[in-house]
Design brief:
Layout (H helix, E strand, L loop, with lengths): L5 H18 L1 H14 L7 H6 L2 E5 L5 H9 L5 E6 L2 H10 L8 E2 L4 E5 L12 E6 L9 H11 E12 L6 H12 L17 H10 L4 E10 L5 H8 L3 H7 L4 H20 L5 E10 L1
């Protein structure tokens, strides 16, 4: 089973950043809102929002969650956003109207930098809020990432993580392989499945083992904005690794595969079913 190292992940996301921004970022924003709500940042009552002093975002991607957090947090709350990919950092800067050589928005008490989720360059107890959207299941060692989150949080701090949910509830990520099997195309990837942390009981226990005192765990569903099968095939046949695989198969077989994908998605939509994915997430208190 292939597990990407941090160096390989950096290279992968540098190469995939613009494709991800174009096709996938819109589906991550609702989950980012779910996470920052779990941190109390969007609250207008109680002590959670009022007590938030410093926020760390790990794996900002092209910046959907960053923009949401900036819109809701108090200007007085320090906010640092990070990603392992410099290309993702640059896309976030662009989305925020920053120049490529700038790393902060002083009036918002905001900074952005490149860093590794498993080796955070921050001192112990530096933040009271931490969130990471769709990253934990990708890193080389999820256990190490959880321990790093615990380390940089102060006592009483809150962290929120999201990962891919259960495959049976995530048709947007399973249709391509399902139809490949139907037309006789073998997609036996040696890579670790991105669904490997979907069990919320397992996920919760991992966070408790990392030291968190209370962990809430659950599932939610995010529907894709895809409106037809052609849009789906354009999006989900676009990842570089899949494009590389497509070059190895017969052209007629590929066209058959693509046609059946398009028809299958259109049939689901015409029956009134969403194309989308389940998210598993945890809210952890130190």
């Amino acid at each position: 089973m292939k597990v990407f190292t941090s160096e390989e992940l950096e290279q992968k996301w540098d190469g995939f950043s613009k494709v991800f921004q174009q096709y996938n970022e819109c589906s991550t924003a609702p989950v980012a809102f779910l996470l920052i709500t779990g941190l109390g940042i969007t609250s207008q009552f109680g002590s959670a929002q009022n007590s938030c002093k410093s926020i760390l975002e790990v794996a900002c991607g092209p910046g959907a969650g960053t923009k949401l957090c900036l819109n809701y947090k108090k200007d007085s709350s320090k906010f640092i956003s990070t990603d392992i990919s410099n290309e993702m950092v640059q896309l976030t800067k662009q989305s925020l109207g920053m120049t490529s050589d700038s790393n902060e928005i002083p009036e918002k008490n905001f900074k952005i930098q490149q860093c590794n989720a498993e080796k955070l360059p921050f001192e112990d107890s530096s933040f009271d809020r931490y969130f990471s959207n769709y990253c934990l299941h990708l890193v080389e060692s999820p256990e190490t990432m959880l321990k790093e989150a615990y380390r940089v949080l102060e006592k009483g701090g809150i962290a929120a993580f999201s990962v891919w949910g259960r495959p049976e509830n995530s048709n947007q990520f399973t249709i391509v392989k399902k139809i490949a099997e139907q037309v006789g195309i073998e997609m036996n990837s040696q890579e670790r499945s991105s669904f490997h942390l979907n069990d919320t009981n397992k996920l919760r226990q991992m966070a408790l083992d990392a030291g968190f005192s209370r962990v809430l765990a659950g599932h939610s569903f995010v529907n894709s904005p895809i409106q037809n099968g052609e849009e789906y095939s354009e999006v989900f046949l676009s990842p570089p690794s899949l494009q590389k695989f497509i070059q190895t198969i017969d052209k007629e077989k590929y066209l058959e595969w693509k046609s059946k994908i398009v028809n299958h998605v259109d049939e689901l939509l015409n029956k009134g079913e969403f194309i989308g994915s389940e998210v598993s997430y945890i809210i952890c208190t130190k």
